[in-house]
Amino acid sequence: MSIAWPTALSGAFSDRRGLVMGVLKVFLAIAALPVVLTPLYAVVPPVSTLMLWSAITFQGMERDWVSFDEIAPVMVNSVIMSEDGRFCQHNGVDWQQLNLVLDSKKGPSRGASTIPMQTVKNLFLWQSRSYIRKGLEIPLAYYADFVLSKRRIMTIYLNIAEWGPGLFGVEAASRRYFNKSAKDLTPRQAALLTAALPNPILRNPAKPTRAMQSRARTIEQLARQAGGYNDCL
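RE: above sequence
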């Protein structure tokens, strides 16, 4: 004996199924964006999620895209030696450093993020720290490192990094804080900009605290020893 479902109940079930399928399609479309966009970013200057958020919330968005050759080598060396010393050796993720941080009781931190991981985070993910975000960074970093050259990843990173409220990229930061182009940065200025990266909202490279000055001196010394650490660029 068959049971006839009331028309209203059947319609409600159909509507709910349609809603679920719609949400699923939107989720899959969002998830596919990094896969589609990353190859385009080999030639197209990208915009990060933080830049978009800054623009739509009327905080402003200042950035002047520059090529790799328009950035002082000492700036590149400062970032590599401070942020990701094995940038030229790994394939997007430095498991040696990542395992040390993931095993820490303090949870994931900036210290575990390679430059490719920071780049994909800035491009596609959110800023707050969590194991979920870190888990998403890993496959995206591998993918970016596979699709893009190390030189392009570094170029993107330095052009989308935040250096103040609404201030993005090394060129805009150089002009704001030191009134010069990124290609003309001195070793000290490059070190101060790098020292500001972990907390760019509170750290002003033009008015460094004693702690920032101390960190900058260390970065400046490390940058002079870059040598083979930057041979992939």
